[in-house]
Amino acid sequence: MYFEDLDLNDNVLDALYDMRFDECTPIQEKCIPEILKGHDVLGVAQTGTGKTAAYLLPVLSKLADGGYPESAINCVIMSPTRELAQQIDQGMQGFAYYLNGVSCVAVYGGNDGNRYDQELKSLALGADVVIATPGRFISHISLGNVDLSKVSFFILDEADRMLDMGFSDDIMTIAKKLPSTCQTIMFSATMPPKIEELAKSLLKNPIEIKLAVSRPAEKIQQKAYVCYETQKMGIIKDIFKAGDLKRVIIFSGSKQKVKQIAASLNRKHINCGEMHSDLDQEQRNDVMFKFKSGQIDVLVATDIVSRGIDIDDIAMVINYDVPHDAEDYVHRIGRTARADRDGKAITFVNEDDIYFFQQIESFLEKEVEKAQLPAELGEGPEYKSNSKPKKGSNSAKSRRKKDRDHQSHKDKKQGNNKQRNRRPVPQTQNTTDENDIKRQENKVANKQNNNALKQKENNPVTTSANKKNNRQGKGRQQERQTKTDNEKRNERKPSNNKGNVESTANQQNKKSNNKRKKRNNRQRTSEEKSVRRSTKYDIREELPSTSNNESGLKALIKKPLKWLRGLGKK
């Protein structure tokens, strides 16, 4: 069917004639008459079939015919992304070229203050058609900048995508503010249950038009390479060596990998650009302009470009990694073979993505041709039926983390992770004991005690009364008491002395056992145990001549005794 056969406004037909649009696509042929009749429409069709023109042409035609209030918003078009909103706005300007008095404004985030002021002015004056992303439009509504009381057309483009992005509540909020007489039109590439529920909530006795639900165009030549992750860049190099370099989109599931791929291609002197969420709106516009105008041959992008972006002459789409949703695969490869052109779709399937690609083949109801790897890259993994990966192993979060590990800052990132996740490395006993000794020495220094007090504190027989005297600073009494105690100890039998040593050692061993539990039951040598029992003295300095079979505690006892004996001789 030709556009001239439809009941469209003459000015709209003139614009179509100048744009060399003569024949309708199937979705346009079925939707335009129903919209012109005033029916609610639910249209389901694959990407690249002309859905945008299917609702813009009849709405513009009705606005051009008149009968709608001036200085008021008459049509609201919701778009899931800024890029699609811009594209609808551009199409609107082309179709309405000969229409006088029909104004349009695109409302989306990521702009500067001047752009925001322009949005406010257009909304206040009552632009006939408002093309908006849900988040930004809700913001204007909450601020009281929008009057929706006279809206006659409410259109949802890529409705399934908007629901996937979490805009369901925003859409319902906007719909509740619209007049009950408003004509609602909904377009979607798929028809999941959530779309059916939304349609029931918004549409009144809709006309359902379904065409080839989520099936790629037949003219797309699909091919897959079963390869390892390290072989993918080599395959791209081989493909581009064959001359297939112009008008190519490479899709990846994460922005980190997009940056990595773009950097690798630039090092190979391939004229490429990148598109992902880290770019601001000005940068996105610049990249898309350069790609559409041919200044960039290869565009590396996330799924932000996979839906609704109208670039007619894309020669090839490369899926650097396999999308885990069959619908996303269809949307990606739907960028090529548009407007009855031929196109190629190539997918790299590594060993972890075999299961998901087999699910895509099941969805397509056909087996995708498996291409032979270039000889210099060696053999790839075997393409065999795999079970579904364990839950969480292929989540979006884990894939993003895995992608980050392949970036240039990988070492830094991994180093931080290692510091976070590394189990504490046990210190040697000597190092630990040195720290303990230093802490004890600092404690004694703070109390400003003399050498005699230090010796007395190391004496295991010291009484509480003597400790009190020590705190009062009675130095002479300390010396006399220390001498008396030491003489008594010398008169004791060796067995009693040994018993005291063993008793003290047992107490120390109990403390050491608790510490050994906290240190993963690490075994200590006999020398380490003796060092551990010290509390006030630096064993290395105080006991240079101590024998190996003599405990540290015995050495501590003998040291002050020798000093006292020397005083007696003097």
Automatic annotation (TrEMBL):
Task: Please indicate if the UniProt record lists S-adenosyl-L-methionine as a keyword.
Answer: no
Start and end of every DEAD-box RNA helicase Q domain?
1-29
CDD domains noted in UniProt:
DEADc, SF2_C_DEAD
Question: Any idea which UniProt keywords this protein has?
Answer: ATP-binding, Helicase, Hydrolase, Nucleotide-binding
The UniProt record lists the Helicase ATP-binding domain at 32-209
Q: Name one GO cellular component term.
A: cytosol
Give the Polar residues compositional bias ranges. 496-505
Basic and acidic residues bias located where? 435-444, 476-494, 524-543
Residue ranges annotated as compositionally biased, kind Basic residues, are 387-412, 512-522, 556-570
Q: Which SMART domains does the UniProt entry name for this protein?
A: DEXDc, HELICc
What's this protein's family per the entry?
Belongs to the DEAD box helicase family.
Q: What is this protein called?
A: Superfamily II DNA and RNA helicase
Give the lineage.
Bacteria, Pseudomonadati, Bacteroidota, Bacteroidia, Bacteroidales
